[in-house]
């Protein structure tokens, strides 16, 4: 697992072979971060990374110099691995929490500018996550919620959906309460909407 860009670009971490987590591919990761760059200034963002898995997404946000990154992961071994990776970076801008994501969301009082969720694609409550996030107070006024999911989930009827990207078998749905400006629209339209599976390195 490697960090693809930013202040920690090129740093690599060996994921234990026993892990069942499905890290987001570098190809999909690079493209979705390019999309997000059209909506936010990373250096001004507080980030919440849910279902953190290997910590790959959290590390990318830290590398882009986000103000603060909170990672929530339920698995004990994955939690320990994320902590280990953060320790190697030597940053104090990260908080790693071991716990159930849904319980965390029900008690969290902090606000975030980006919330990223990468739940198991087979998670029974996956469809509930956008509603839980968007109806809570944890997303800031212009905040972006990104949900990574498989092809069986369709959020196109959600009125707060502002963007959808497909990179191979990976789908990203982006939500925002305030919609998007024309300037943002022009910027993000320059990034590819989709690639077929064969295009993923």
Helix content: 25-40%
Strand content: 15-25%
Q: End-to-end distance, in Å?
A: 14 Å
Rg calculated over all Cα atoms: 16 Å
Estimate the global geometry from the Cα principal axes.
globular
Number of strands: 8
Task: Count helical runs.
Answer: 6
Give helix and strand order, one letter per element, not per position. HEHEHEHEHEEEHE
Strand adjacency order, main sheet: 3-2-1-4-5-7-6-8
Q: Low-confidence stretches at least 5 residues in length (pLDDT < 50)?
A: 196-201
Overall pLDDT = 90
Largest sheet: 8 strands, mixed
Secondary structure category: alpha/beta
Please write out the topology:
Blueprint: H1 26-37, E1 46-50, H2 56-63, E2 68-73, H3 76-89, E3 94-98, H4 101-107, E4 112-117, H5 129-134, E5 139-149, E6 161-167, E7 170-175, H6 182-188, E8 194-195
Parallel strand pairs: 1-2, 1-4, 2-3, 4-5, 6-8
Antiparallel strand pairs: 5-7, 6-7
Which properties best describe this structure?
6 helices, 27% helix, disordered C terminus, alpha/beta, 201 residues, 8-stranded mixed beta sheet
Written overview of the protein:
This protein has helices spanning 26-37, 56-63, 76-89, 101-107, 129-134, 182-188, and strands spanning 46-50, 68-73, 94-98, 112-117, 139-149, 161-167, 170-175, 194-195. By secondary structure, the chain is an alpha/beta fold. The longest helix is centred in the middle third of the chain and has 14 residues, at 76-89. The protein starts with 25 loop residues before the first helix and ends in a 6-residue tail after the last strand. Strands 3-2-1-4-5-7-6-8 form an eight-stranded mixed sheet. The protein is built from six helices and eight strands; from the N terminus they run H-E-H-E-H-E-H-E-H-E-E-E-H-E. It is globular. Strand 2 (68-73), helix 3 and strand 3 (94-98) form a beta-alpha-beta unit.
């Amino acid at each position: 697992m490697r960090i693809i860009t930013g202040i920690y670009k090129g740093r690599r971490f060996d994921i234990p072979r026993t892990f069942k987590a499905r890290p987001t591919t570098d190809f999909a990761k690079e493209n979705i971060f390019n999309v997000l760059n059209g909506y936010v200034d990373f250096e001004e963002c507080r980030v919440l990374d849910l279902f953190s898995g290997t910590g790959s997404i959290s590390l990318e946000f830290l590398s882009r110099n986000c103000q603060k990154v909170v990672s929530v992961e339920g698995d004990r071994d994955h939690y320990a691995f994320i902590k280990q990776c953060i320790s190697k970076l030597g940053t104090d801008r990260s908080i790693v929490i071991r716990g159930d994501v849904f319980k965390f969301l029900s008690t969290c009082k902090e606000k975030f500018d980006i919330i990223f969720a990468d739940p198991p694609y087979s998670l029974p409550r996956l469809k509930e996550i956008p509603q839980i996030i968007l109806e809570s107070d944890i997303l800031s006024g212009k905040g972006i919620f990104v949900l990574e999911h498989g092809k069986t989930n369709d959020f196109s009827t959600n009125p707060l959906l502002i963007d959808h990207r497909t990179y191979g078998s990976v789908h990203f749905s982006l939500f925002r309460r305030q919609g998007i400006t024309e300037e943002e629209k022009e910027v993000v339209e320059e990034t590819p909407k989709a690639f077929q599976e064969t295009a993923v390195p």
